[in-house]
Each structure stands twice: as C-alpha cells, then as structure tokens.
Amino acid sequence: MSDFYSLKIKSVEELTLESVAVSFVIPAELKSKFNFYSGQYVTLETKINGNNTRRSYSICSAPNEDITVGIKKLQGGIFSTHAVENFKKGEAINVSTPEGRFYYKENYGKEIITGIAAGSGITPILSIAKSVVRANKENKFVLIYGNKSKSDKMFSTELLKLKSEFPDRFIIIDVYSRASEEGCFFGRIDNSIINYCFKKYGKADKYFICGPEEMIKKSSDKLLSSGISKKNIFFELFVSKNTKSSELTEDIESTIDIVYEGVNHTIKNPKSKTILDSALDSNIDVPYSCQGGVCAACIAKIIKGKVTMDNNQILTDQEIDDGLILVCQSKSTDSYLKINFDDV
Known about the structure:
The chain is of the alpha/beta class and about 350 residues long. It has 3 domains: about 90 residues, Elongation Factor Tu (Ef-tu), domain 3; about 130 residues, Rossmann fold; about 90 residues, Ubiquitin-like (UB roll). It contains 7 helices and 19 strands. Strand 1 and strand 2 form a beta hairpin. It is globular and about 60 Å long. About 5% of the residues have low confidence.
C-alpha cells in the first residue's frame, strides 16, 4: 500500500479556465519513494471544510521530470474545485507514493504506440507519450485526442512543444465535438477516426486509452474487431457510470474483521453500507482514493465471507476468483466477514 508524505506545491499552472497542472517539490531523501512508471497516479489529501479529503490524479510528467498532475474542475467535485480555485505555490498537502496498473514500461526496442484520450484523460497519456518518443529514436507515438473545443484542451502548449521536438515521431489527431477547426476532426472519437488512424499511420504495437467509460468501450470494441489483441489494449477510466452488481444476494448487517498493517480491527457493518464507509466511520485509516471503483487503492483480500461489489473497473475475473475486492464498492452478504489489506 502507498504511504503519504507532506509535500510542498512547487507551481500551479493554469491549463484552461477549468484546469490546472500542479507540480510538487520532492525532497532528496524521498526521491526513490516517488519513482514511477508513465501512466501511474498519486493520491492527494487535504482538509476541505474541516474534513480530510482524498482524490487520485494521474501523473502527466515523465519519470525524469518533477511530479506533476493535471486537475480538471468537475461539476460537484469537492476536491477538484478546491484544487483549481485554491491550491497555491508553497502550500503543503499530503501526497501518496505513485501506484497504478495502467502504465508504460520501456522495453528499449522499436515500438509504435497509439494513445486515445478524451478531456482530462490526456493526463497519463501525455506522460506515456513523452516516455515512448524518448526511449528509442525509432519509436513513434500517435495521439487521438478528443475535446469540446480548443479552449477546453488541456496541455495544449506542452503537446505543441512535444510535437516541435519530435515532428516525425509524435503525431496528434485532434477531435472537437463543439467546434470546427481546420485540419481537425469534428465530432467525437469513433470508428471512423480509428479507421483513419489505421489507414494513415498503420496499426500500433500497443494502445493506451483514457477517458469516459463510453469512449473507452467503443474504442476498445473497435480495436478488438480490427484484430488488435486484447493483451495490447490498456485502459483507465476517468469517469465511470455507477453500475450495480448483477448478483442478487442482499447485503446484510455484519461483523467485519479488517487486517491492515498487521493489526486486526473488528467493526460492525450496517446494512447497505460499504466496508470502506464503515471502516472510516470507525476511524480505521485504511487505504482508499477515488471511491468510485476505478482505481486500485482500496484492494483487499477476502479471508472469510462473501460480498457484492457495486462497481468494478479494475479487477480481473481471475483476481475476483482469488478473493480480491474493491473495499469502496463492497458490501457484506454474510453475518461475518474477514478481509486482509496486507495480503494483496
């Protein structure tokens, strides 16, 4: 599990009217703890309205740069609104060490990589793009990037800089849904745009997709139907629909033993309450972040008992069969449940 450290904000750069890039000062003694692969994320924690609040944000910088995250203000987003409107240089907030299963690892061989991003989904894709083009002089990165308009485009300056530095090996296909721009596509990322990419630039060795759930599903389906192997398609959700579990078992009031950092905690779990909510209500500082089932911060293993999960965009079928759960989405269906955060 990731640890948290108090870090000072090095800079806050406005990207659009609704988004910022926040960079952190990493003390020399913590450098090794904050090593990361392109595509991974950190969790930020700060006090908002008297409550400690956490959210995960993908790292947009490359591994040899300062750790920087992109934050876009979301409607009703407590943390994102606070960050965009209030974060200041020199302010100290708690930052977790990097984690995440969505990442690019250099293999030092020639690769063609395609990134498909919409909105703030560009954040981890930008980090991956930098690593790809710098890892090998023959590598190529093709970016399909969807936004409402140019004014909503995050990291536009940095993308132009990367294009200028690698004009033949970093390609941008811009797609705008609410503006018609010369040399860009109008509409949303769909099969026709992916077909255009195939025809003009060929098929890539790997595909990294990040953004809303619907865009990811449609893009993944198109890639699979075009002969791209599932093992070469990687995705991370930034927005997820709250889909309920198909299991019919009713969640019940139960007693739960939680093992975390070698300590056993026994709590009562009221009916219809997630295990995470009950743990936090009992002042047990278990790991968590997004609270939406789209990150991997709160994974634990079932030792005894059963649960249902309201939403899961991270765990594979095999991992679920092995007893892994997302605690933020899990409700007990047994009168007794035991889970272990240390055995994952």
